[in-house]
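User: quick one, fold this
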Amino acid sequence: MLILIPPSEGKSVPQRGKCLDLDNLALPQLTDARDQVIEALVDFCRDDPERAAVALGVPKTQLDLVALNAGLRQAPTARADRVYSGVLYDALSPATLSTAARRRASSRLMVTSSVFGLVGPGDRIPAYRLSGDATLPGLGGIAAHWRNCLGTAAEEAVGDGLLVDLRSSMYAAFWRPSPAIAQRVATVRVLHEVDGKRQVVSHFNKATKGRIVRELLEDGAKPRTPVRLAEALRDLGWSVELSQPGKTGTQLDVVVTEL
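Assistant:
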């Protein structure tokens, strides 16, 4: 089983640690594609920081983020599961996982990244600011770049197991699983039900997904189909409804009444 989660917009900036070494990251077949993004991002932020700030959506009060990007190659690194922060990661709380759950995370969990494509929780990376909908001079759109590079590596990471795709729509655009593995793809949508009405609430959608990932890692369940995943989640106390399988996989609706 491979669980894909989105990155966070906010990140914890490592204060010390080794510089980035692309050769030590998971999925080494992505090294060249990663290097291309880094080169374009560093050059843009170093050579034209004012335009870079606008293009990257950096507030005027946070221009230090542009400088952070400009120094990406020399910046200290830390484990990816310590660099990414925010609602989903607070709920997942990687640092408080049991030893067994951390071990499972190392082989079953990957983060989608605008800079790195996919990274494992133990990969050492620097903090950066680059959204999935950004465009960089000389490179083009980030999503288009990864669509051209990510497919083979991502499907190798999935192997013959189940893909649990928890990415947001922005990062799902980086790679769409092929029809060949659709029967082993489960996407998850979180619905908040109040008085019989259901809606998606972004903030709590992220928190719920973080809790789901944490519980799956702690439980150790290893479902191989979307149906088995639904059963595993129900065993953990979640209310789950399955859609009909489609060309891109099977959607699971997790229905919550409390946020």
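User: anything notable?
Assistant: The two ends are 27 Å apart (CA to CA).
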